[in-house]
């Protein structure tokens, strides 16, 4: 039985280091190639030795697909392709291809320059790696080789995030990557058609959460910022360079525009500026509003948001500043935080989750006195706010996607085991499909029941459909024909053609049957009686009495002879060809019942 | 070569008398199918007269049978359909032929086209049941065709023509008495999605035509909701909705359990489910239909707003619930703490239903949708449901308030309007009010004004709420001073709705102090006026309030009562005379006397026509004065009073003109009076146009009188001209024209003539035979005598009469700073005006700019510049571009609004059946056709401008 095998090298019952191996109909595909944020040793990258101990990976993998540019989905790519060695194609969408190297370079810088690690990939390696990338468009079917094809669907989440359908023949797998089923200020919602894949590999970050409407969050956020600015206070929003930062920028920009506000908004320069540039370019990947209005004005060409300069932090008057990084653990955001923390008019808004140990986490958990380097004590008087802006589908969203795609099996990755368990149970209960949640390194095998396409000649099809009623979708239809399996292809043709093609002579197969009838009369009278009887019963068929004393019903021949021993018993010889089996056997059973009493 | 043929073809058509013959020749000439097709295409461009349709059809059919090429047959089939649409042609004579053509047709496309033709024929012959039966039978026969196009058309045909009444089917005794619903229902499972869609649409069509669909279809339709194709799903949603309206109370089982629910609830759940469909077309459809399912039980309804939040498998409260709790606990606007939204109790994993929960959170999803079309549909649906269910209105409030922050302005506006519509059912909590008020800072004027309208009819629960609203409105006022009027109006309603809540705020608002005198606020400050408007309106129903006023407040009251009487109500102030309460418009018992007064004074005028001219004149003058004053005092009667006053004015002018001595003396000696008479004639003409076009509610009875008056004025004009000009040549033309007009008048108002005994026109028509033959000088003489002898007509008053008015709000005309711009370039001037009782303002209202050098410019505002805030009210917000050559000094230009009219569009000519094109040319006099003009109907506003010479 054909099967699909899935082995997560990362992200199996875990978040981070997404890397999933799929083998489908003899093709091996690697989905995502991410790093783990929690580790600094070998565990940060997937264990590629699982694929092969020695030798290049190219021989074992047909292609690699990257769903989006977050490092936990693409962070290990240069390591994988340049240091381990892979020369095959890598597929990602255009925005991902554009932004991914920026993030990789940033990641490399932090690891090598700041932490001083050696044996890490170099800038050149990133460049070489990106040369192997093939960019794809949404809904474009890309033929990786003759049999394997992939297709990208919109996934929301971040700019350029995509879900991929991998298809070999009739078997297919959909990998969602990270996706978002509710639109936000700059991206639309994920969408997939009813492609009915054999397997849907879905993320499950929020498997046990049903989220509130994002409108409240947005409104709260805007109100907080607005109030603070009106009071003359300063607002600090620590963000990561890509993703949420752009959403919040758009949110504030439109709000400023609508409300005619004058206070300046700043955005820390560097990485973000570069990224914004790409956002401007890939307008088609954004949501309805931005796509529709960009003719008048590109929403990412901010009118109110300007680049930040270190000196601005000391300016008097209200302002809003977006600064990196998002958890206040280092860099510009921390510097500004130190400057502003003392004034109760100011406010800091944490738009995302903070890892334990960071300043962000400390202030969120209510700590008001922070110990900084050099034994300094920093008293935090400014207001601290938390707003969660997350771009993953919640449980309802995941279910909605499953409903849209109608897969035959579901496999959950990218989430915590406990939460997955709940969702798995729900999926099985509500969709009646199998659901799997393998751990890292564990292989799941799914048996598929692929339909096998058979070519049928048009003539045969028309002839067969002409017989009987209109085709009904719900009922299978019986057809007569010859199946020819030749050169890896299947064809259904009419028997005559099959004979001709195979160069075979036709053999006639006839069934002959004797039926004994008690009838004392003469042979030809018996024949006449049989003829009249049949004619009376088989109204829809042509029954003929031939001059030589035999009867034909369609192509079935009936002859009567007297029994050699008993003249009172007549022997009816019924003979039919294989094709008329149905009618022939019916006739014999009819005759075996005997003739009706004579009416003459 | 092709062109050559075309040319000759054209020639033929010109010479041949009959269309069918020409076509026949053409088609016979055609050598190839392409040629024939060309001819047919050309033929299709020209209209065919009713008489020749049948002939043409026969020719076409003849060629149809001969033709081998399917494309030509297709064209012929489509032409047949086109021809049978010809007005006045009854296609039953060609029906048999059309059906016969179906017999031998092999091409599916042609078949489909032929069926389409039959559909056209059938729809023209709907009254004939046997024809319909026959066509339905034909359609049923072709339902088994293998092409989707044919099946599609068949279903359409059945849907449009299938028997609707049970009885008919029996009468006609044919076997097509089969159940059409069954036949259509069988195709719900067709293999082709297009056919499935057509089947559902046919079913809906049957429903629209009045057939009661069977409930059995419901389960079939439910299955179609899961179809792969969006058109099918979209149509299925509609079908389910129809069924839910037909059988709301039926009971259907819930699959996979033994429970049963009402059909409408089940359908509601299913449609809610479709709000999260993959295709946005279906989502819009579903969201729209939800709004009209009012029979649904409240339990289901309220689920649509509850998404059943959870976090990490624990139940979580929504932000809305938290806000409510925060509010009720007495704490207001606390900072948010980390973990404030921490989930509370654990939930049972087994009980959580993620997808099948039907209605759960449908609106939450709809309002969050990516496409704004869906969001708007969802807001509309919310509005409709909330209007019928107060408890739901209360619940959906939070969601509507959230929509005020949508990224698309249209959605924001829609949700504000929605909120206004349901505001009777709700009271805003303070925190909600806060969010609502935040939108006041929006830079879009539409949004702000919609919000003001909303606040006009909102219920606020606390005095803090009122205070908050006032503060925010004042903030709005300082930020956007142009909103002044709208804000005052808003505060007026806010005050009169919440007198008891305003009362405790009064000392604070007026900043009075028990011991100290506070400085008198500036009377011209719009913010202060705003506060006063709020207080005075509240004081109207709160007699204790005036006690809190300080001296200057009373003075300000008197001033404002006079200057802004529409905003400040009359108050019963202690120790003061009631200034204007006897004629107060708000006190109902007083309405009748004033109406009586109006009628009495009119009666008086109409009865006293045989007094001596001097007396008549005086009476008219007094009555006119009375009426004008009445109009000023009684806004409801203003239209009526003005209208009659104008009419009487016309009459007065006419009498005066006829009193002149000039008539008895040789013309040249009385040039001065002469001028007076002709001026009177001119003025009467103008006034009649005003009467006809400036008032809404004028009926044909009034139009006759107005036209009659106009006719008199024209007669007067003619007489005056005859008196003053020498020679008869110009008179010939004028006389003829006048007689034509009399003729036209007679034709237009033939039905009204009996009511006009003894009038000018009545007498004139009696003399008509004589007039036509006599010389101009005699005509003039006759006219003069008839004019003098004629009685004056009683003007009946319609029920409702409103005068079109316009008020330019902006520019205010108060600015002393000239608008400077470089000469030769343009400057944009914002014009903002309110229009009342103007019909079709898009077509009639113009802006006129008058420059000091007498140059006038008329600007047609764009249709989009007009908004319609309420019945009978319009608002014009537009930009006028000004330009001029350089001036040395700043100077004032005048801006005013004009009402354009065109006698073609007049009510009189609209009443008589529109003559056909050919007739109108000869019959109607030219003059009736094209009198166009404009009536200024707003006070002109002066704008100071200064075009500077361009610097070189």
TrEMBL record, chain A:
Q: Which SUPFAM superfamilies match?
A: Metallo-hydrolase/oxidoreductase
Quote the InterPro entries the UniProt record gives: Beta_Casp (IPR022712), INTS11-like_MBL-fold (IPR041897), IntS11_C (IPR048662), MBL (IPR050698), Metallo-B-lactamas (IPR001279), RibonucZ/Hydroxyglut_hydro (IPR036866), RMMBL (IPR011108)
BP term (GO), one:
snRNA processing
UniProt-listed CDD domains: INTS11-like_MBL-fold (cd16291)
User: Gene Ontology cellular component?
Assistant: cytoplasm; nucleus
Q: Which domain of life is it from?
A: Eukaryota
Metallo-beta-lactamase domain residues are 16-233
Q: Which cofactor does it need?
A: Zn(2+)
Q: Which SMART domains match?
A: Beta-Casp, Lactamase_B
Family annotation (PANTHER family): CLEAVAGE AND POLYADENYLATION SPECIFICITY FACTOR FAMILY MEMBER, INTEGRATOR COMPLEX SUBUNIT 11
Family stated for the protein in its record: Belongs to the metallo-beta-lactamase superfamily. RNA-metabolizing metallo-beta-lactamase-like family. INTS11 subfamily.
What is the name listed in the Swiss-Prot or TrEMBL entry for this protein?
A: Integrator complex subunit 11
Q: Which organism is it from?
A: Charadrius vociferus
From TrEMBL, chain B:
List, for all copies, the residue spans of the domain called INTS4 8 helical bundle: 595-798
Integrator complex subunit 4/Protein SIEL C-terminal Ig-like domain location: 807-949
What GO biological process term is on the record, naming one?
A: snRNA processing
Q: Among its keywords, does the record have Disulfide bond? A: no
Alphabetized, the UniProt keywords read: Acetylation, Cytoplasm, Isopeptide bond, Nucleus, Repeat, Ubl conjugation
Q: According to its record, what are the GO cellular component terms?
A: cytoplasm; integrator complex
Question: Which cellular compartments is it found in?
Answer: Cytoplasm; Nucleus
Q: Pfam families recorded for this chain?
A: HEAT_2 (PF13646), INTS4_8HBD (PF24493), INTS4_C (PF25458), PDS5 (PF20168)
**Gene3D superfamilies per the UniProt record, alphabetical:** Leucine-rich Repeat Variant
Q: Which InterPro entries does its entry note? A: ARM-like (IPR011989), ARM-type_fold (IPR016024), INTS4_8HBD (IPR056235), INTS4_C (IPR057412)
Which family, according to UniProt?
A: Belongs to the Integrator subunit 4 family.
How it assembles, according to the record, is: Component of the Integrator complex, composed of core subunits INTS1, INTS2, INTS3, INTS4, INTS5, INTS6, INTS7, INTS8, INTS9/RC74, INTS10, INTS11/CPSF3L, INTS12, INTS13, INTS14 and INTS15. The core complex associates with protein phosphatase 2A subunits PPP2CA and PPP2R1A, to form the Integrator-PP2A (INTAC) complex. INTS4 is part of the RNA endonuclease subcomplex, composed of INTS4, INTS9, INTS11 and inositol hexakisphosphate (InsP6). Interacts with BRAT1; interaction is required for the assembly of the RNA endonuclease subcomplex.
Q: What is this protein called?
A: Integrator complex subunit 4
> What organism is this sequence from?
Charadrius vociferus (Killdeer)
